[in-house]
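Last lecture ended with a question: if I hand you only a sequence, what can you say about the shape of the protein? Today we answer it with a concrete record. The protein is Transmembrane protein. Below, first the input exactly as provided, then the predicted structure, then a couple of comments.
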Amino acid sequence: MKLIFHKIFRIKLFFLLFLALSLTNKVNANQTYVKVSNGQQQEEEGKTIIVGKTTINQIDYNTECSCVEPSLQQMEDPDAESCSLNKLKLQLDTDGQGMNQDTIRDIVGDVHSLQFVNPKEYYFMGLDGRNTEACLSTPGGDAGEFILALFIYEGMLQKRQLDQNSVDAFFKSYLQYMKSQKFYFATDDEAIFHMERETGLSISIDSLKNPSESNKADLLSALIKAENQGDRHIKNLLKNPDLYNIRPEIVQMFITSFFNVLWDKTNLNREKLILDSLVGQPSESAFLEVRSNEICLEKHLSPLISVRKKIGDNWQSLFVNHIDAASQKRRELAHFFSDSVNHHQEPIDPDIMFNRLTKHGLSFLEVSGSRLARYLPFYSLDMV
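The predicted structure:
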């Protein structure tokens, strides 16, 4: 008789069997109910099979496990979603001066240590090696994706331009519509310091989140300038809008909308906003693009990836872009603008908008990537 045990549930299953048998009156209390012998690995049709024996209530069973090694997330939470990965495939796409593959593997970690999330239900951080947590990342983070969507939506409105009232309404509505519980926007300590010198105000990340009423107008006037932005993608959108073919006013209107919600204590959605301040000078030495396999795409899962690690006495960091995860976020944005925003406008096809988000998202990535990581090696990380 053969039983097939999945590793993740093996301990739980044996415990339940032990508990069930211990409650019967037919078995002596000193009897060994469950005994598992050491398994041996065998190769069968290219798969690693672990074969052993299990004794339950003095009856021997052959046991076999052909499953993949569970991830740390699955071991801590057996019900957690995963993509059943066997390994991560890292390859060099474009050579450059910077980080080698061994260092990238060290930063990213083992395949079984990855945590997977649904990109539609999780926030995106920006392309920055100063991010302090494992994350999903895309140019500009959530803010960059929403700016991209505003840009595409305006282009589909037959030469009509968005105004501040429209952007305010769209952003407030999206915070209610989105599946994620958080919306991310970043600055950095250098941008905050620059604003202090420009405005003459004493500014910290805390005071930027909750300024006095008298300082709000001066802060908004400063925040819409490129030199006072800490996210380098958004800074480039403001500084070089012609390279992206975007009206800088779109970026400025979004920034105004974000801070108006953040500062409005009567707006319950302000709790969803994350205003992060990145610390120190950036020092990325590679660019990594993360791609998902077919199973991950079907399950709407993407891995959170660390972008920095202290190796020896020095911190090593890299740019990470989740290209497939960002695509899922853009699909959500396309449906939001076509279904929830466009009630009284000319019809917007969500598939057409999604295709344009994809096309221009790649264009934005190419422009920002070429400026931020011009001489760095480019790698791709595939889920296998």
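Comments.
1. The chain has two domains: 2-67, 81-383.
2. Residues 350-372 form the longest helix (23 residues).
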